[in-house]
Amino acid sequence: MPKLSDKKLCADSECSHPILIARAVQDYYPGDCRFIPIRQGQLIYVYAMLKDRGNLFWAGSVQDSYYGQQEARIGHFPSSVVEENHPLMPASTEVKTTKWDFYCN
Questions:
Q1: Which of 25-31's residues contact partners 24+ apart within 8 Å by CB, and which partners?
Q2: SS3 content of the chain, % helix, strand, coil (to 5)
Q3: φ, ψ dihedrals at 69, nearest 5°
Q4: How far apart are CA 42 and CA 62, in angstroms?
Q5: Within 10 Å of residue 89's Cβ, how many Cβ atoms?
Q6: pTM, whole model, 2 decimals?
Q7: CA R_g for the chain
C-alpha cells in the first residue's frame, strides 16, 4: 500500500498520546483496510495528523457506542468527516511515517 504522507504531527515521538477527541459529523465507509469505518456521532481519539500531501487525513481510534461491545479500531480517516470536540495535547511533534503506519494485512 502506498504511504499517504511522509510525516505526521503527534503529541509525542511515539504518537501514543491522543491529541484531541473528535465527533463524527457524517458516516465514512473506507475504501481499504488502512482506513476505519466511522458512524455519525461516534467519538474518535485522534493520535496523529498527517502532513504534506496527506494533510486531509488523521489517524485515530474509534470505540463502539457501548464500551466493550467491540474492540477499538485504529486507522486513518478524512479530517472532513469529524469536528474537533475536545483538545487534549498540542500536536507539536513532527514524526516521520513508516510503511507500518499504512500497513494492511
A1: 25/81, 25/82, 25/83, 26/81, 27/81, 28/77, 28/78, 28/81, 30/75, 30/77
A2: 10, 40, 50
A3: -65, -35
A4: 7
A5: 13
A6: 0.87
A7: 13
95-104 pLDDT tens trace: 999 988 888 8
What average pLDDT does this structure show over 25-47?
Answer: 93
Q: Which residue has the cell 511533534?
A: 93
Torsion, Cα of 67, 70, 72, 78 (10° steps): -100
Give CA–CA dist 48/94, Å, rounded. 10
pLDDT (tens digit, 9 = 90+) per residue, 53-85?
A: 656 899 999 876 655 555 667 899 999 999 999
Strand partners of residue 75: 60
Which pLDDT belongs to residue 54? 56
Cell numbers that stand for 89 in this block: 495535547
Query: Do residues 22 and 44 make contact, with C-beta atoms less than 8 angstroms apart?
Result: yes
